[in-house]
Structure prediction request, 337 residues.
Amino acid sequence: MVISGWSDLRVSSISLDGLDNINKLEELIEQEEELNELEVNAPEDVEDTETKKEDVSYKESELNSIQIYMNSIGKRPLLTAIEEVELAKRIKEGDATAKNFLITSNLRLVVSIAKRYCGLGLPLLDLIQEGNTGLIRAVEKYDYTKGYRFSTYSTWWIRQAITRAISDKARNIRLPVHANETIQKLKKIKRQMIAELGRYPTEQELATASELPVAKIRQLNKIIKNTISLESPIGGDDDRSLMDFIEDETNKNPMKNTISKLLSEDVQGLLANLSQREQYILSMRYGLADNNPRSLAEIGQEMGITRERVRQLEAKALRKLKHQSALKSMNDYLNDD
Prediction:
């Protein structure tokens, strides 16, 4: 009997509890320079021939600015896990020099991530600036005692800052000016009411406070969607945000979920060049999909082939993985001790 699930195989979620299974692949993994590709690709020319000269001039100017920036941040080598922990300890003690060193050591990581979001409405330099904001926040929130690499942890914050900026930019382009002004007013009222009430205000309460009809509030809420960010400041001068006051009862460890998501994405990319059968065998053998590793005999029985044939196919798949540079990035998720 042959399993029909090969074509539907997806490593949709990987539990951190299953990292021991992935560690079995550790001999295939070497340290990666994640920032080994830092050439900047120019954006495509606009189709309007009347503005081509201006567009080319702009691109040349942007590329020059990016080159200047890249030269300014230098080529500082990636930090080791031990160096990250040592810097994090010093930062906890209030060492501003250590904080600056950890930030500047990861500026090229920001560039690497920002490049992936080119063409979505913001110039690369703006994307880099937003990413740097996320990097700084990651440095401030990083807890080295959790055992995660800083590069892995900061990636989530950098991506979040960039995608939020792109989303805000896209929303502002679509909305008329008068609608934007009304929305900004409503957002301010919401923040004030959340601070005062300790909860999200009702549509009627918002209507009363803003002197707008309930129907208008409902319409604006549909446009805004989740306009109140968890990072929105809540009163005072202590830089505390709404996130600091809300307990997430459904998510006991957000850092674990973040790492799991990044790991799942990397494993998907890792297996993409294998055949469906090879993907299925590695997924079952190492429990990548459900944290439940199977024996050669179990896999063979499910697939309708011999145990020895499963072993041969597994070995072939692992040989393919040895030649994939993407495999090396998984080292960030493994124990660096």
Observations:
- The chain has three domains: 6-30+256-333, 49-173, 174-245.
- Residues 1-56, 226-231, 245-252 have pLDDT under 50 and may be disordered.
